[in-house]
């Protein structure tokens, strides 16, 4: 049984995958706006690590949901947290660099390395639930850099 059949996404419900992606992107927009304010109020580092911790837990949880509606709700929250983590993890390191090097360092884009690694994960781990478990547990290692 494929993943679409597990969630009942056959025939007349083929729109759901696009809907979930739209819901997640709405979360990204809202999360970036909210996190910017939170990071300015409480500090970038605590907000970054708290959001990343919640993000790892929710990523892991996605592998065990039983309906596409629950999955969509988790993806909305994950989108919000991802928007916040991207925003803060871009701004925070640039605060420690002199203005002369900020443009250069801001353009490096280490996210491209992460996307390439995700493609490699996806090639070797074919089941999406196992992929969610694997990527979420390895990204939890980032949390040890707080100290």
How many β-strand runs?
Answer: 0
Helix coverage percent: over 70%
| Biggest sheet layout | none
- Which architecture name does CATH use? Up-down Bundle
CATH-level-4 superfamily name: MFS general substrate transporter like domains
What is the H-and-E element order? HHHHHHH
Strand content: under 5%
Number of domains: 1
Radius of gyration: 17 Å
Number of H- or I-type helical stretches: 7
Q: How would you summarize this macromolecular structure in one to three sentences?
A:
This is Major facilitator superfamily (MFS) profile domain-containing protein. Residues 1-147 form the Major facilitator superfamily (MFS) profile domain. This protein has 147 residues and is mostly helical.
Task: Give a structural overview.
This protein has 147 residues and is mainly alpha-helical. It has one domain: Growth Hormone, Chain: A. Helix content is 76%, strand content 0%. α2 (16-42) runs antiparallel to α3 and α3 packs antiparallel against α7. The radius of gyration is 17 Å and the shape is globular. The protein starts with a helix and ends in an 8-residue tail after the last helix. The mean pLDDT is 86. Keywords: Membrane, Transmembrane, Transmembrane helix. It is a multi-pass membrane protein.
């Amino acid at each position: 049984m494929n993943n679409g059949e597990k969630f009942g996404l056959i025939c007349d419900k083929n729109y759901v995958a696009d809907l979930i992606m739209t819901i997640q992107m709405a979360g990204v927009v809202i999360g970036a706006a909210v996190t910017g304010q939170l990071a300015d109020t409480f500090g970038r580092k605590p907000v970054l690590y708290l959001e990343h911790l919640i993000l790892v837990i929710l990523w892991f949880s996605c592998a065990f949901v039983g309906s596409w509606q629950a999955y969509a709700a988790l993806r909305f929250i994950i989108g919000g947290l991802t928007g916040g983590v991207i925003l803060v993890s871009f701004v925070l390191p640039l605060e420690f660099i002199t203005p002369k090097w900020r443009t250069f360092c801001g353009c490096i884009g280490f996210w491209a390395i992460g996307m390439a690694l995700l493609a490699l994960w996806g090639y070797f781990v074919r089941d999406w639930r196992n992929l969610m478990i694997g990527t979420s547990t390895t990204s939890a290692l980032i949390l040890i850099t707080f100290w």
